[in-house]
Amino acid sequence: MTTPVVAIAYHSGFGHTAVLAEAVRTGAAEAGATVHLINVAEITDAQWELLDASDAIVFGSPTYMGTASGAFHVFAEATSKRWFTRAWQDKIAAGFTNSASKSGDKLHTLQFFTVLAAQHGMHWVGLGAMPGWNSSTSSENDINRLGFFLGAGAQTDNDQGPEGVHKADIATAELLGRRVAEQTRIYVAGRASA
Ligand SMILES: Cc1cc2nc3c(=O)[nH]c(=O)nc-3n(C[C@H](O)[C@H](O)[C@H](O)COP(=O)(O)O)c2cc1C
Q1: How far apart are CA 111 and CA 133, in angstroms?
Q2: Residue nearest to atom 10 of ligand 1 (CA)
Q3: CB 6 within 8 A of CB 28
Q4: Nearest Cα to 116, choosing from 183, 181, 49, 58?
């Protein structure tokens, strides 16, 4: 069976989003992918090459001031070298973000990731899960408790450290990782047989 290669390109200022990046890695590895976890704030030339060689790239960042963090934006601008050569054309893309408020304008961060992916000619994979915590019988422990479709959205109280990342959000990030690995496997196998 095809082994998809999934890279997670993320930034985390204080460690919360890093917990989610690990969860995406866990999910993708469980689904049989080879996974590269790359902190874009200290990305090396060798890691750029890992991104170039990956079948899928999952973008992850905290939401700062209603968008991805400055460090992630620096990375996004640096990807313009790949944009010129179309190096990431037709890779799979997905994304996740975390912030202190339940909304916190996280949708805008996920939308930024989709535009970045589209500029590179990548194919976006959304979360693929129904929204949770939206009825009288549901709870904040539901998968996708914040009801995002574009990717995984997490909320961490601003007075807690990385240990405070919500278990449901970790499970949701794992689900995203599994889904990206599964969809990438199908895509890579399909392209090989086309
Ligand atoms: C500069 C800055 C801007 C922030 N802006 C937002 C925001 O727009 N919305 C929000 O809900 N939380 C905001 N926060 C809170 C962070 O998103 C939250 O603390 C998150 O867990 C940080 O993740 P990290 O530890 O991976 O950096 C902001 C935090 C900082 C430091």
Answers
A1: 22
A2: 104
A3: yes
A4: 58
**Total domains, the chain:** 1
Q: Give pLDDT, residue 24.
A: 99
Is residue 177 classed as helix, strand or coil in its secondary structure?
A: helix
Instruction: Report the alpha-carbon angle 179-71-52, nearest 5.
Output: 50
61 lines ligand 1 (CB under 6 A): no
Q: How far is CA 168 from the centre of its chain?
A: 16
154: left (phi over 0), alpha (psi -120 to 50) or beta: beta
Residues in the chain: 194
Q: Which atom of ligand 1 is nearest to the CA of 99?
A: 17
**Measured between alpha carbons, how far apart are the two ends of the chain, in Å?**
16
Give the pLDDT confidence of 101-136 residue by residue, as tens digits.
999 999 999 999 999 999 999 999 999 999 999 999
- Sign of CA pseudo-dihedral 144, 16, 155, 106: negative
Distance CA 65, CA 149 (A): 21
- Which domain covers residue 98, as residue numbers? 5-193
Ligand 1 atom at minimum distance from 165 CA: 21
* pLDDT score at 1: 78
| CATH number for 176 | 3.40.50.360
Q: Does the ipTM surpass 0.95? A: yes
